[in-house]
Amino acid sequence: EINEAFASQAFAVRRDLGLDPDKVNIYGGGISIGHPIGASASSNGVTVTADSVIGDETSYTVVFTVSRDDGRPFEGVTGNGDGRLHLMAPGSSLRVDGVRAAGGSAYFYDADPTDNAIQYVEQMSTDTDGGTGIVGRTARFSMGDISALNEDGTLTPVATGDWNLKFKMNYADTGVDLPTGQTVGWGGTTAKVDGLTVSSVGATVRYTVDGEMRTPAESGRVSDAQQAEMDRYLGMPILVTFSDGTTEDLTDTGTSARSSDGSTHVTKAGQFGRVASVDDIVSVTLGDTVVTVNG
Fold first, then answer.
1. Which of 170, 171, 191 lies closest to 182, judged by CA?
2. What is the CB-side half-sphere exposure of residue 189 using CA atoms within 13 A?
3. Are 157 and 169 a contacting pair, CB within 8 Å?
4. I need a labelling partner for 272 at 20 to 30 A (CA). Which of 104, 147, 175, 196 fits?
5. Rounded to the nearest 5°, which phi and psi values hold at 221?
6. Residue 256 near residue 101, CB atoms below 8 Å
């Protein structure tokens, strides 16, 4: 990440150094990475810092930096072609006050393999008590030992320690509400769209389907009939198209549902694999219906 406040400066640095635009500022740098946090904790010669947060009312992306205090690069760290690292920190968790359920992903990447730091990204969509947003709430982050995942499935320690941070989720809500009320269909199911929001980090769709979904028992396997029942209510395809021609499929994403009075009310909230400007979102396709964002 080139953490410059002006796009022209970041562009000039990338151009003059011949850096790959697909790997540089994938989270936007100082412009779109979000609001700075700055909370940090140190353990065993390694410091973890919560750099910044960006999100909407219920979803967020937080970027942390993990750095060696002696200034040396981490050893034994390898990655994929997309820059993500083969690292694990099984004990890591970020808990936001008032969040009763959350779903998403987390991963490590290395913005600069020559320096003493690596980055950790957590992306989550949340369900809060009372349905209110998470902006301004207190977050508590903990991270334990970081290990490299070897090809044979074994783990090699990269950094050992216990890091605990607390900070406020103070950021501007980047969400934009889109027109609703459409009747959309997929696989023989029809639904009414009650809410549709896109933001820099993802999209949230709320819709209602006639009929009450029968919830499978908590224990035991889900039968084919039960899976078909769930797909009927929860399986709305969601495809987000960007101005560069790329798409993000959010069909299989975090989903919650409640049934009452002969209807099932569903919320699906998914995260993009990037931080994007809402201005770069062209459309959201819900089942057989296209909702234009920026024509």
1. 191
2. 25
3. no
4. 147
5. -80, 150
6. yes
Q: Which helix (H) or strand (E) holds 168?
A: strand 163-168
DSSP for 213-245, written as a single string: PPPPPSSSPPPHHHHHHHHHHH---EEEEETTS
Q: Report residue 254 CA to chain centroid gap.
A: 11
Question: Residues 268, 274, 277, 282: is their CA dihedral positive or negative?
Answer: negative
At residue 260, φ and ψ (nearest 5 deg) are: -165, 150
Q: What tokens does 146 get?
A: 């970081």
Greatest Cα pair distance, the chain, in angstroms, is 63
How many other C-beta atoms can be found within 10 angstroms of the C-beta atom of residue 61? 24
Q: Give yes or no for a contact between 5 and 29, defined as CB atoms under 8 angstroms apart.
A: no
Whole-model pTM? 0.78
d(CA 77, CA 53): 25
Dihedral sign, CA of 26, 30, 31, 32? positive
Tell me how far the alpha carbon of residue 54 is from its chain's centroid.
10
